[in-house]
Amino acid sequence: MLPNFDAGAFDLAEDAPAKINLALHVTGQRADGYHLLDMLVTFAGHGDRLGFRKADGDSFSLSGPFAPGLAAEASGGSNLVLKARDLLRDAASVQGFETFPIHIHLEKNLPIASGIGGGSADAAATLRGLQRIWGIALPLETIAAIALRIGADVPMCLASRPLIARGIGEDIEPLPRFPSFAMVLGNPLVGVSTPDVFRHLPSRDNPPFAFAAQERRDHAGWISLIEGLRNDLEPPARGLCGEIGELSRLMKAQGALLVRMSGSGATCFGLFNTLGQAEAAAASLHSATPGWYFQATETIAGGE
Questions:
Q1: pLDDT tens digits for 259-287?
Q2: Where in the chain is the domain with CATH 3.30.70.890?
Q3: Which of 221, 224, 259, 279 is deepest in the core (most CB within 10 A)?
Q4: Which among 15, 38, 48, 153 is annotated as catalytic?
């Protein structure tokens, strides 16, 4: 499905869709420092991809436009894909399952540390793919605990379907009637420190969502609702990274219905009426700023 990925070279392949925070409200902070959030989340048809192949020994390889930025992580064993592999193998052993050595290949198509859940999506895809290729079925609560141990975004990425997430991200409510949106993802390829963004928050006790999540809405109704929500991390992120404001301005100039930053940035998304409009906008944005990342895509509908 994704370019430059030879699925035939692997026994099994698994997509890792980009996670898009359509809205993010910071509603409090726990005693351990974790922030409490209300998040409206969807997933794109574009993302990373992983391949799995039985091997003589565990190994890991990388390709894709953003692979060089992960090379140090991979050699040092700190990549979330490897963490997911090891935690799942340990849990499987406790449950009496045997797990053979595996080669994992990651095609890295998403910018790194960009607010669209790339590493978390990769870890979630690893958990899904390894269960399939190893032929194991661990209890859902075991997988959920492993996912949360890897990172707060991983439980959402395990679902990879539209949802509302609360708490630190572990309290998930699926949205089965949520529509698909045509979208452009943009990133100036400038790093933004998530801890710095949270440190610059003017308030950590903001209003939570105040809408009926399962109420029936059409496409226009959801866009109107999203417009009334916010990303509380966007103002401090804009203060730390001026390119976010410029990116937002450029996307609005292309006729986007709504432009907002995703997560802690610096990726922004623009919603469009059709995929054709999104593709035209992405091409125009590439021409105007060729050193930045732009990708037209459609999000995954809740019923798919």
A1: 999 999 999 999 999 999 999 999 999 99
A2: 182-298
A3: 259
A4: 153
